[in-house]
Write a structure and sequence with these properties.
Layout (H helix, E strand, L loop, with lengths): L26 H20 L9 H18 L9 H25 L19 H25 L9 H4 L5 H15 L3 H23 L2
Helix pairs in contact: 1-7, 2-3, 2-7, 3-4, 4-6, 4-7
Length: about 210
């Protein structure tokens, strides 16, 4: 997905973002990145919003897909045990609110958005699994910021609130996330659980993209 970051907050492509590099990543984060790189690349290649001729209709479809995806991931918050992890997963709600604002800007306040529904896998009780899912969600924000830079003139005057996200603070927020991730995901078992969580988050996108 090209709304995705490099490990060091660097620049890169469009859509869900460039594949992360290993720079400044600890072993656990690098392992998650490497294990899910093929999923990332496959989703990235299939997203219409990443094309050079993107229109507002493509952005609308992209937003509706992400609203559904985030809705599927929102129940993970209830499984979080640490305040640090809970704060990162709580941010899913804020992201969905930005999506709703963008949809209303284009199509009125009554524009429907699918809430999404997905059964939580048994592995979701593992805290490292939740960190892996949060990696995908938070990573998408840095790539979204890059996509904002590409599309802000093309899709003007729409404010593209979701893609703009945290604005100039986006890279700094990503660095805070990977620091928290590195402190919380330690050991071989936790690494495997984080990979499972990231894989789950990526896998939920596949049927949604197929409907675009």
């Amino acid at each position: 997905m090209r709304e995705f970051p490099s490990g060091n907050g660097g620049e890169g492509g469009g859509g869900f973002g460039p594949l992360p590099s290993a720079a400044r990543e600890d072993d656990a984060l690098a392992s998650v990145r490497e294990a899910t790189a093929h999923l990332h690349a496959d989703i990235d290649a299939r997203l219409p919003i990443g094309g050079g001729q993107a229109k507002l209709a493509d952005y609308r479809a992209h937003l509706r897909m992400l609203h559904c995806w985030l809705g599927m991931l929102a129940p993970l918050r209830a499984q979080a045990q640490s305040p640090c992890l809970r704060r990162w997963l709580e941010d899913i709600t804020a992201k969905r609110e930005l999506i709703n604002s963008d949809l209303a800007e284009m199509f009125g306040a009554d524009e429907p958005a699918d809430d999404g529904a997905a059964a939580l896998p048994d592995e979701a009780r593992a805290q490292a699994f939740l960190w892996g899912a949060a990696y995908v969600v938070e990573g998408s924000q840095l790539g979204g910021r890059m996509l904002y830079q590409r599309l802000k003139l093309r899709l003007s005057p729409h404010p593209l609130r979701y893609l703009r996200g945290r604005g100039e603070e986006t890279s700094a927020t990503w660095r805070r996330f990977i620091a928290d991730f590195g402190r919380q995901v330690r050991g071989e078992n936790a690494r495997a659980e984080a990979i499972a969580g990231a894989t789950h988050a990526f896998a939920l996108l596949h049927p949604l993209i197929a409907r675009l």
